[in-house]
Specification:
315 residues; 31% helix; single chain; 7-stranded mixed beta sheet; disordered N terminus; 9-stranded antiparallel beta sheet
Amino acid sequence: MKSQKYKNTAAFVFKLWQREVSGKKISEKETEILNQWKVRTEKDLDQIHMKESKERILSALEPYFIKPGKNVPINSFKKYAFTAAATLIFLLSLGGILTYNTFYKPDTYTADSGNRKIYLADGSVVTLLKGAELTVDKSFPASTRIVSLKGDAVFSVAKSKTHPFIVRADGFSTKVLGTVFKISQSGKDKSVQLYEGKVAVSYAGAPVSYLKPNQKWTNFGIAHTAAVISLTTEHKSGKQNMKLLSLSFNDVSFKEVAEVMQNNYKIRILYPKETAEKKITADFTGGTADENMEALAFILGLEVHKEDYIYTLKK
């Protein structure tokens, strides 16, 4: 079959469909084209949309489910009904796809080769870093402004006292009313760094963390772990100093807890091997290394001995 005979692809497919439902013979090639079109069509439709389309089709076909008159041959009536059904199915499915893509399918933005700026409808600006992907529903901005993020991005959120802005990332979310912050995701490591305003970070298995400017939330790459760090920069050297403000563990193995404590307090912890897999649940707000190590020792039922920067836990 020559393609130039049908300049309009939709009309071509409809012709084939019309022949199929009317019982006319269709070649193998035409059957293959119909099947391919059907597969591509259904891929673009979710289950809810397909159900709604079927209901609209059945409703639209009701006028055709009537008995033919005495002077109307049965075959002619069947052909008429099939043709009408084919027309409705085609138009509704084609229109449904266009409607879904235009009004319902979320917009997806990616930064494939480098950073990319995305300007949202509420005035917010998102700078996607290389490899990142942002998904925005067609309903945005609604009463709650929600977007989804894969990878790293910097958000400059338009201020609104009544419409929270929520970024859903991999396993955690960040809620703001208007601010500038950066979300970073690398494997299991998650972090939110705040430059301006206030944000609340929610992470499964950890309490909600509230950040102020020049503070950073991180999980240190460990599940059910959350920390807030203060970031300050020395004017002369430009060196960035970090201070641990709060630290939370919820059912985390002691060996992982010890690793976090060692890295952040620049200390070394020695402990019995049988303690390594014991689960720890603890919240530390401020406090020195000495105070927090005393608290850990109490939770484990051990004693702590300190020599220089080395803490030894013993029975």
